């Protein structure tokens, strides 16, 4: 581990905070008037997958964790866990639901992802920014529904439920943002 000043935080960095590993999503340097500067961050806990907002003092030092990412191909899930294959040496690995966390809602067969390793142990899964998923269950489209701000729930092929515009129907493929679990566009 190496120390970095809070002002050197950048999106994508992995830091140790309160005994846990976090991936930094966004950083905003704030200097409110005559008060001290602070770094407002949005971070994802690599163990639990939860996203938190945290404010570091600008002069604070943090421990930066060195995480290895190895490309794997998702194969399938069963009661034992989620099964992946290394794309370089074709070695297979099973990860528990605790390690995969919320990322399980975005895994589809033959998808390439990165498994994150810290000190030789898998700690999480790095997904692409967007994933194309099929809608399996949603309310039928209302004719002449012109209000664009109205959204309806839709269940996707992986079990994830998100809000989609009223023109999306069963069987449509949509692009989903994996960081915020939200609809982006039709795929």
Q: Would you give an account of this structure?
A:
The protein contains 1 helix and 16 strands. The chain has one helix at residues 97-100; strands spanning 2-5, 14-17, 20-30, 38-45, 51-57, 61-64, 68-78, 81-86, 92-95, 112-118, 121-126, 130-138, 152-156, 161-164, 173-177, 182-186. A 6-stranded antiparallel beta sheet has the order 1-6-2-3-4-5, with no helix packed on it.
Question: Care to count the β-strands?
Answer: 16
Instruction: Kindly report the oligomeric state of this protein.
Output: single chain
Mean pLDDT: 86
Give the CA-CA distance, first to last residue. Answer: 41 Å
Sheet with most strands: 6 strands, antiparallel
Spans of at least 5 consecutive residues with low confidence: none
**Backbone shape:** flat
Summarize the helix and strand pattern as letters: EEEEEEEEEHEEEEEEE
Structural class: mainly beta
Topology:
Layout: E1 2-5, E2 14-17, E3 20-30, E4 38-45, E5 51-57, E6 61-64, E7 68-78, E8 81-86, E9 92-95, H1 97-100, E10 112-118, E11 121-126, E12 130-138, E13 152-156, E14 161-164, E15 173-177, E16 182-186
Antiparallel strand pairs: 1-6, 2-3, 2-6, 3-4, 4-5, 7-8, 7-10, 8-9, 10-11, 12-13, 12-15, 13-14, 15-16
For the structure shown, list the relevant keywords.
6-stranded antiparallel beta sheet; 187 residues; mainly beta; single chain
In short:
The strands form three sheets. The protein has a six-stranded antiparallel beta sheet, with no helix packed on it. It has a five-stranded antiparallel beta sheet with strand order 9-8-7-10-11. It contains one helix and 16 strands. A hairpin with a 2-residue loop joins strand 7 (68-78) and strand 8.
């Amino acid at each position: 581990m190496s120390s970095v000043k809070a002002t050197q935080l950048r999106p994508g960095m992995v830091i140790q905070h309160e005994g846990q590993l976090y991936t930094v999503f966004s950083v905003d340097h704030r200097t409110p008037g005559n008060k001290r500067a602070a770094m407002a961050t949005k971070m994802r806990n690599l163990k639990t997958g939860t996203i938190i907002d945290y404010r570091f003092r600008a002069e604070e030092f943090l421990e930066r964790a060195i995480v290895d990412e190895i490309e794997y191909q998702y194969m399938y899930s069963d009661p034992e866990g989620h099964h992946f294959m290394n794309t370089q040496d074709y070695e297979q690995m099973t990860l528990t639901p605790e390690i995969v966390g919320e990322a399980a809602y975005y895994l589809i067969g033959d998808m390439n992802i990165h498994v994150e390793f810290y000190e030789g142990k898998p700690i999480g899964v790095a997904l692409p920014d967007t994933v194309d998923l099929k809608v399996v269950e949603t309310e039928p489209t209302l004719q002449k529904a012109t209000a664009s701000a109205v959204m309806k729930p839709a269940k996707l092929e992986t079990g994830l439920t998100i809000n989609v515009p009223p023109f999306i129907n069963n069987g449509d493929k949509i692009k989903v943002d994996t960081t915020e679990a939200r609809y982006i566009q039709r795929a």
